[in-house]
Amino acid sequence: MQRLAVLVSGGGSNLQAILDHLAAQGREAPAAVSVVISDRADAYALERARARGIAAVHVPRTAPEDALERTLDEHRVDLVALAGYLRLIPAAVVRRWRGRMLNVHPALLPAFGGHGMYGHRVHEAVLASGARLSGATVHFVDEQFDRGAILAQWPVPVRANDTPDTLAARVLQVEHKIYPWCVEALARGAVRLGEDGRVHGHVPFDFARFGVEGPPHPFVPDV
Ligand code: GRF
Fold first, then answer.
1. Which of 56, 127, 140, 149 is a Cys-bridge partner for 49, taking CB atoms 3.0 to 4.6 Å apart?
2. pTM (2 decimals)?
């Protein structure tokens, strides 16, 4: 059983999706969330952790540089999932958990990612660009924001009458579908980051459980 840390800064709906996905597998689950860590004491995601009896730890921005690493060690963490965590991961943590740390981003990277590109700003940028497709991306974490090797992406057509809120809501639904599967696949060893910096293996999505026949055809605008 892999020990999973989830790093959060906000509401934690992706954390909830991961918790529910793993709980649904009962004894078959390859991982369990052993700690939820936030840089914000008021993050609702910490409440979600406490409600499940999971350690909820606040590591403030003012904490020493090695505070995150020490917290991961205290909880003997094997895998790390960033779920709306807004801080850059210290290089020492990236080095030690390289290939064992994932992030989810609400756009089709490498577009609309990078420093400062989070939350509403992402969807505003997508709409301003006139792109007809957005989506969600799950990738390995490296030393820079939103740049690591990509595990999985799912397209979400942009509607003519979309606002940043309506687009964000549909992308978030897709995040909740693909991120738990990616975390599970990593925990089971079905996917890995090779020495060549490329992703090896694949995430065995069970489309039937997504309630769809498979990825929507990306070129049919959903207007
Ligand atoms: C998600 O859209 C995620 O892609 C981004 O931050 C948001 C976090 O949402 N990195 P939540 O806290 O999981 O609800």
1. 56
2. 0.93
Q: What is the dihedral of CA 37, 38, 44, 45, to 10 degrees?
A: -30
| CA 204/CA 221 separation, integer angstroms | 26
pLDDT score for 43: 98
Total length of the chain: 223
Indicate which atom in ligand 1 lies nearest the CA of residue 106: 4
pLDDT tens, residue by residue, 188-222: 999 999 999 999 998 877 656 555 544 444 444 44
Q: Which atom of ligand 1 is nearest to 172's Cα?
A: 2
In angstroms, the CA 40 to CA 11 distance is 11
Which pair of tokens denotes residue 142?
A: 């490296």
Asked if 79 and 91 count as a contact pair (C-beta separation under 8 A), the reply is no
How many alpha carbons fall within 13 Å on the CB side of residue 162? 29
Task: Encode pLDDT of 20-60 as tens digits.
Answer: 999 999 999 999 999 999 999 999 999 999 999 999 999 99
- The residue ranges of DSSP E strands in 96-173, in sequence order, are 101-105, 133-140, 150-157
Closest Cα to atom 1, ligand 1: which residue?
Answer: 84
Instruction: Based on the residue annotation, tell me whether 105 is a catalytic residue of this protein.
Output: yes
